[in-house]
Amino acid sequence: MKYRSKILVYFTALVLLSGCITTIDKAPSGEIPSAEPTMSPIPASASKEETITLTEFPSAIGNIVFPTATPSPKANITATIDSGKFLYWRTVDYEQKTPIAFSMPTVSGNEYIYKNALASYNFGIVPTGNFYLNLDDLNNNGLTNSDIEIRASTGSGGTSYYLNPLNHAQYYYADKKLDLEMCMAEYPLTGFDELSYIVQAKGINWGGDFCILTNEGHMAVVHSVMDTLYRQNFTIVITVYKQVLETIYIPVATFTPGPTPTYNKYPGFSREQSETVDKSVQLFIENVKKNDKGAIAAKLSFPLKVRPPTETTSQYLNSKSEFYYFYENLFTENFKKEISLSSLMDVSTDGTSFRLSLPHGFVDFDVLGRILEISNQENQ
Fold first, then answer.
1. Separation between Cα atoms, residue 282 and residue 169, nearest integer Å
2. What letter does residue 65 receive in the DSSP assignment?
3. Predicted structure pTM score
């Protein structure tokens, strides 16, 4: 009897427990145990770790004025990039129709042309378009004298901005704040390959500073106001130093003044620079004739870009010992013969480096006469 009573109690408890589980499983469809998360739009630049805050503009931003648009005269200039070189001299061929708004705080003394000047451009609700600036004179932004172009592009992946140098200007980007001394330490620009130089254009999205050596020899420091990246009026901050940097600036000139003007075979370079390069090229030719590996190695700039005739792509050598190891592969008898028969008449420049052109390859030099690249293409 006691045994039956225990079984009855267990059975009753089991039925009650089963009923509770069934009740939970069959909760009314109108009830929502927990709320679904609500999705909010996040700016393209935000990440999980990022906190987006608004930056207060300097007080001068309130004084921005929109001048009447005065289109620059149309010129027959096209955007060009020498695919074999990375310090390219880009140009533009469009007229600026949308006015650029400026705020130019008054500066005193002889250190600055502009200090924390603001330039603002309306790229529209869906940011697209281009504008260009003459950093030496923000009141005179022409096709042939401007130093930078800023472009906005919007697609399925969001909006991106790009800053490119124009008309012989050169740029360097760092993910930090820079001043004149820090910028000068980076010039002349010798530590870049083509890709690493060009991708700097995206730095305008990242908040660091650009050092821009203008086409008149001034150093400018430029960065974007990050909070304007996703607004219509995109704004950049500009500081330009008055000093003309003669030690690193290469003026654009093609003739040497004198009673009988003589043509400079290396446009944009001084006579002293041209002589330095010519001496280095001639010395290189003589050292190859003598098969003097040590003398050749003494004029190399590392990392040295090389292409042996057995390869279809280039590689980099990082030391003289690596160069000596590759020497016989690189300097074949035919290649040495071509170099020995070459002359200064075979040297040309793209405005940033110098090339000794050979029937089956080339050798590139920098403005200091150092060898940047050796390419033996006799099997191509």
1. 30
2. B
3. 0.49
